[in-house]
Amino acid sequence: MAEKRCAAKRFLIAAVVAYAAIWLACFVLYWTSLLAGVLDGGAIAGYTLLVLYILLPVASVISSFLVGCVSDFGWWRLVAPLAACVFYPLFIMATFGLSTEFGLANVANADFFAVAVGFAPAALGLTAGWLVSNRRAGGFCR
Fold first, then answer.
1. Which of 7, 12, 28, 84 has the least CB density, counted as fewest CB within 10 Å?
2. CA distances (Å), 102 to each of 70, 91, 97, 98, 122, in order?
3. Which residues cross the membrane (predicted)?
């Protein structure tokens, strides 16, 4: 039983660290590039596509999958998509919203669409992790 809890804790720590590291790396990349003058209109568009529509959703899927794999969490697993719902728009506000307020760039701020985009990949990852944990497919999740 203690082994199972230890494994569950490792999956949770891995999920949180993975998402937080990617979130923080994207945040630092945005601000350092913007303040260095590297990001202009076209570069911000590319950054937006890369980060908001590829990196953060993939990180959300992976971290939610890891949380979904662990049956010890029970209903607490549902917190993973809700956390993504919070951190995805928070990222937009902490980057694009603040840079617009400071007059460094003029980029749209977060809206309800950002909440949906933050929730959907996390919900898919959580569901996939839950399905894998129920079937014990390939011995990945225990």
1. 28
2. 43, 16, 9, 6, 31
3. 12-32, 44-67, 79-100, 112-132
Dmax over Cα atoms in the chain, in whole Å? Answer: 55
Instruction: Give the residue from 3, 40, 23, 21 showing the smallest Cα distance to 90.
Output: 23
pLDDT at residue 116, as a whole number:
86
Predicted confidence (pLDDT) per residue in 39-97, tens digit: 877 888 899 899 999 999 999 999 988 888 876 777 777 888 888 889 999 999 999 88
Residue linked to tokens 């929730």: 119
Position 124, amino acid: L
Task: State the DSSP code for 38.
Answer: -
